[in-house]
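Recall the central idea of this unit: under ordinary conditions, the amino acid sequence of a chain determines the structure it adopts. In this exercise we apply that idea directly, starting from the sequence alone.
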Amino acid sequence: MRVTYQREEFANVRDEIMPLCERHWEEVAYDKETLKLNPSWDMYEKIDAAGLLNVFTLRNGDILAGYLFITVMPHLHYREHLFASSDILYIDQEYRKGHTAAKLLRFAEKEIKHLGVSIMAVSTRVQKPLDKLFVRLGYKNTERVYAKNLRQQNG
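Accordingly, the structure predicted from this sequence is:
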C-alpha cells in the first residue's frame, strides 16, 4: 500500500467524498438523533470560491482514503495574522497504521505556511480524541468548546 498526500480542488473530490463522510459521521458524530449527516455542499462551494477552503487528501492510487479540510482567513481579533482552522479530518480505518495522520497534517502545514499562515488550529472530538497526535506535532491546547442542543430545551 503506497499512499500519497496532496492538495486537491474541492470540486474534484466532492462526489467521491460522501462514503468517507458517512463513516466519519458514524464514528464521531455528536447527538446523532438530532444532527443527521447532510453536508452543505453549496456553502463549501462558496467558501472555496472565496479562496478560503484548502482540501488535502490521502490517496492509495485513485482511492480516496482520507481528507483534511482547512479554512484560511484573517483572524477577527488579530487582523495582521492569517489563521488556519481545521474543519474536518478523517482517515479511513484501514489507513490509520503508522504515522498517516501526522504525515497528512505535516503536509497541510507545509502547504498553508506558504500562504502566510501564522497559526493553525485543529480540533478533535471528545468521542475520538486526537490529543496525543496534536501534542506530538507541537500543538497546544488553547481552548475548550462545549455544545448544547437548544431544540431539546423546554421554555
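The radius of gyration is 16 Å.
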